[in-house]
Amino acid sequence: MTVLQDRLARLLRPTGATATISRSADSAEVAELLTSHEFLNATAILASQLGRDVKDVQAEAALYVREMAVSHVPAVVRVWHALSAWMVRGFQVVIDDDELANLRALDRDHALIFLISHRSYLDQFSFPPRLVQGGITPTFGLAGANLNFFPLGTFARRNGFIPVRRATGDIPAYRVALRAVVGRMVSTGRNLVWSIEGGRTRTGKLRPPRYGLLKYVTDAVESVQSEKTLAVPVSILFDQLPLHEVKLMVEESRGLPKRPENARWLFSYARGLRHRLGRIYINFGAPVPLYERMVALRDEGLNDRQVVERLALDICHRLNQTTPVTATAAVCVAMLGEDRALTLDEVCATVAPLARYLKARGWPVAGGADLTDRATVSQTLHDLVGSGVLTCYSEGPTTVWGIGDDQHLIVAVYRNSAIHVLVMRAIAEIALLAIVQTPGATKRTGWEKALAVRELLKFDFFFAGRDEFADELWREFAIMTGRDQDPNAPVDVEEATRSLGESELMVAHLVLRPFVDAYRVVAAELVNLGCSGPGIDEQELLTRCLRLGRQWSLQHRITEESVSGEMFATALKMARHRGLLDSDASAAEIADRRAALETELDGLQRSIDELARMRRNSVQV
C-alpha cells in the first residue's frame, strides 16, 4: 500500500467504524483482524474505488471474514482423523519418515506453506492428518467452498479448512477479506496448505498454477519481510484413483457439467471407496525460501506479476521433479503405446526399456518397485483388471490384456501422471528428427526445433529456464546417442539417424501427440471462425472444439484422449498469447497467424507420425 493510499484510507475511515464491524460473538482472532490497520485501510480504499459507503464495504467484508473463520477443535480433529482413516481405507499411505523429520525440524521456527498436486478428493483426507501424526504443527487448509456443506463443511471448518469461493470476480469485498485472512495467517507464522493447481487435474498431469492465493502470501511475506516462510511442494500420487471419481473426471473432461457436491454425493462417494486400490505416495520437494527468492527475482528486474508467476513455475517444476513413476503409469504407457491386447511377456518387454531409461535418468519409481520384475508387472495388470480399466482374456492358449471399452481416457490419466518424466525425451526425439530431415542440418537445427516445441507447449508443461532446458536436452541427446554428455559435441545427420533407428524407447507419439492433436482442433476452429471480429465467445468455441474433436477422433484423425475440454482450454491460452483471439491486429493479420499455427501443427503431427513409424519398424514386441 502506498503512502497516498494510506492517507486516503485514514480520511475515508469513519469514526467508530470498528465498533460497528466487530460483534460480541466474534472470536478473538476475527475481532483482531476486523479492527486491524490493514483491514480497515484496505476496505476504505475499496469503498473509494467502488464509490460506496465505507461502513457498508467494511460490514460486507467482515461477513466474508466470518465465513472463513476456522479453528482446530481437539475433539473434532480426533473425529476428523478417524473419518480420514476410514475414507482412505482402500489405500496404504506411503510417506518418507526422513523427509517428515526434516520438515519437523524446519517447523520449529518456520512457517510452512504446503502446495500440493491435486488428484483426488482424498487428498485432504490422506495428507494433512499424516502431517499431524508426523509431529508437524496443524495446517490451515484453503479448500473450495463447493465442499462447504453439512456435515462435511461443519467438521472441516473445525479442523482448520477455510472454505474459499472460486468465482469472485464480481465480489471485490470478498477478495479483500480473503487477502486479509491469508495475510494475517502468514504474518502470524501459521502453516498453510492448498492446491497450487486450484482444482483436481482432469488429464492426470499437473495443471497450470493459479496465482491468486500465492499472490496474497507473497504480499504478506514481503510486507513483514519474513525470512522464515517456506513453500514446500508436495506430490500426492495414487496407484489407482477411486474408479467412480476418475470416471467423473473423464466425463467432465469431455465437456459434461460438473455435478454439485452435497451430502448425498458424499455418501455415494464414500460408499465407492470400499475397494483396495493400492498405495497413496506422498513426496516432498525442496522447500523454496519465499522472501529470499522474491528478492533475487526483483534484482532481475521482474515486476510483481512476473515474480509471482516465476515463483509458481519454480514450485511446479520442483513438484514434478519429486513425483515418482508408478507401476500403474508404466503399464499404461505400454498399453497405450501398443493399443492392442498384449501377453504378459509383451507387456514386460514394452515396460523394460522405460525402466532402463528411468534408471539412466536416476528417476525414482514409486514404492521402490522393480519395473523389470515380472511379478510386479503381473500384479499391476491384475489390479487394473480388478478396477475395470483393463480387460483380461484367458480362454485362448495364452492370456492377454487389453484396454477396456471406453477406458482409453482413464488409461491416459494414469499414463499422464508420468508424462513430466518423458516430455524432454519426446522433444529430443523431435529435435533429432529435425536434424535427420533438414539438408545441411547441424546440432543447432535440433536446438531451434526443441525451442519451438517448448514455446508451443509452455502452457501445458513446466519447462526449466533456457539454460537448464539446454542442459536437459543435451542430456537426452547423450542418453540416445550413447556417449558422454557434451553440449559442444556436434550431432550430425548420420548419428541422429542411427540414434533414432536403434532407440529402444520412442515416446513422442505417446507424450506429445495428444496435446498437438488438441491444439490442432483449436487451430482448425479458429480458422473456421474467419473474420468474426472481436468478442469471441470462448465457451461456445470450446463446445465447437469438443464436437469437431469427437468427429476427428471417430475418423481416427486424432487420438481419443485429445478430445478434452481441459486440453482445449489450455490450447486457447496459447492462442490468446499468440494474438489469435481478440487482438489489435487487423483481421487479415489474425487470419494469417491462425493459418501459420495450423501449418506449424501439421508439420509437428507429421514428425510425430514419422517417429511412430520408425518405432514400429525398429521395435519388435
Which keywords apply here?
621 residues; alpha/beta; eight-stranded mixed β-sheet; 29 helices; 9% strand
Question: What class do helices, strands and sheet pairing give?
Answer: alpha/beta
Largest sheet: 8 strands, mixed
| Share of helical residues | 55-70%
Separation of the first and last Cα atoms:
64 Å
Into which percentage range does the β-strand content fall?
5-15%
Task: Show unreliable segments.
Answer: 11-19
Oligomer: single chain
Q: Tell the overall outline.
A: globular
User: Helix count?
Assistant: 29
Question: What is the radius of gyration computed over CA atoms, rounded to a whole number of angstroms?
Answer: 26 Å
Count the E strands: 11
What does this structure look like?
The protein is α/β, with parallel strands linked by helices and about 625 residues long. It contains 29 helices and eleven strands. The strands form two sheets. Strands 1, 2, 3, 4, 5, 6, 7 and 8 form an eight-stranded mixed beta sheet that branches. Strands 9-11-10 form a three-stranded antiparallel beta sheet. α10 links the parallel β3 and β4 (about 160-165). The longest helix has about 30 residues, at about 585-620.
